[in-house]
Design a protein that fits this description.
The protein has 261 residues and is an alpha/beta fold. The chain contains eleven helices and seven strands. It folds into two domains: 121 residues, Response regulator (Rossmann fold), CATH 3.40.50.2300; 124 residues, no CATH class. About 6% of the residues have low confidence.
């Protein structure tokens, strides 16, 4: 039987060793490496991709959200579990946007860690449950509402909520339970979970696109030639070069976003 391969990164030695000990005690799980920080984790994962990476959310020069984005762009098959030192609503929302499959705090029950590893490697997204918290649902609503302030061209590139997704989020933000919402909207639990899965997908897709747009905006103003005497040149890139750059961005968007129905 093939074992689930896991990599660990956390600054706190006792926590890291505890998780390592817990996972190593399972016959179907193998810890293939560990380190103190996400920067080191990225270097390891790039050459030795695990099936699951457990990373610290924020206690590092490279935070867990940035690490998750980088890993998911090049190795989308790697499932990421982020660990918060303490519960923080803002960090949980950032974890949701980054593409992590799960997120919990350090007081998590060891059995939950083991079960979560087994779930995410099969494609499950336990982090979607975070949207059932009214505070997180409110943040999601505010996030998509804020997109209206962006330019028209940028808005066209981004995913937006459907009417059904929006009404579901407002129901959650108002503090209604899953059972109450299902009754009010006349849908079953499966349909509600499907809607929230779609919301999470759109959050991640938009996060990746906006990051790429920021990179493009930072690069484009500086694309000019330097004269042979070392002074800034006045000759800018040719139309053909710019078109090639633009096409490369389009291809990146296709890869990042996939098909949004």
């Amino acid at each position: 039987m093939d074992k689930i391969t896991v990599f660990l990164a956390d600054w706190q030695v006792l926590f890291r060793e505890g998780i390592h000990f817990t996972l190593s005690g399972e016959e179907d799980i193998e810890v293939i490496g560990e380190d103190v920080g996400n920067e080191q984790a990225l270097a390891f994962i790039e050459t030795n991709p695990p099936q699951v990476a457990i990373l610290n959310a924020s206690h590092d020069k490279v935070n867990g959200f940035e690490a998750t984005r980088q890993i998911k762009q090049t190795l989308p098959e790697v499932s990421i579990i982020l660990v918060m030192d303490n519960y923080n609503e803002g960090l949980l929302f950032d974890a949701l946007k980054s593409g992590a499959s799960a997120c919990f705090t350090k007081d998590v029950d060891p059995d939950v860690v083991v079960n979560t590893v087994r779930e995410v490697v099969k494609g499950a997204q336990p982090i979607n449950e975070a949207i059932w918290k009214k505070e997180i649902a409110s943040r999601v609503i505010d996030y998509f509402t804020s997109l209206s302030s962006l330019g028209e061209q940028v808005r066209k590139m981004l995913a937006h909520l459907t009417t059904r997704e929006t009404e579901t989020l407002y129901q959650i933000a108002d503090g209604n339970s899953k059972e109450q919402i299902a009754g009010t909207l006349d849908v079953n639990d499966m349909e509600l979970d499907k809607r929230l899965g779609s919301v999470k997908y759109k959050l991640v897709s938009n996060d990746q696109k906006l990051m790429l747009i920021e990179v493009a905006q930072s690069v484009l103003p500086s694309i000019s030639r330097v004269s042979f005497n070392g002074n800034p040149g006045t000759e800018y890139i040719t139309k053909e070069e710019f078109d090639a750059f633009k096409e490369s961005l389009k291809e990146r968007f296709k890869v990042l976003s996939g098909e949004i129905s």
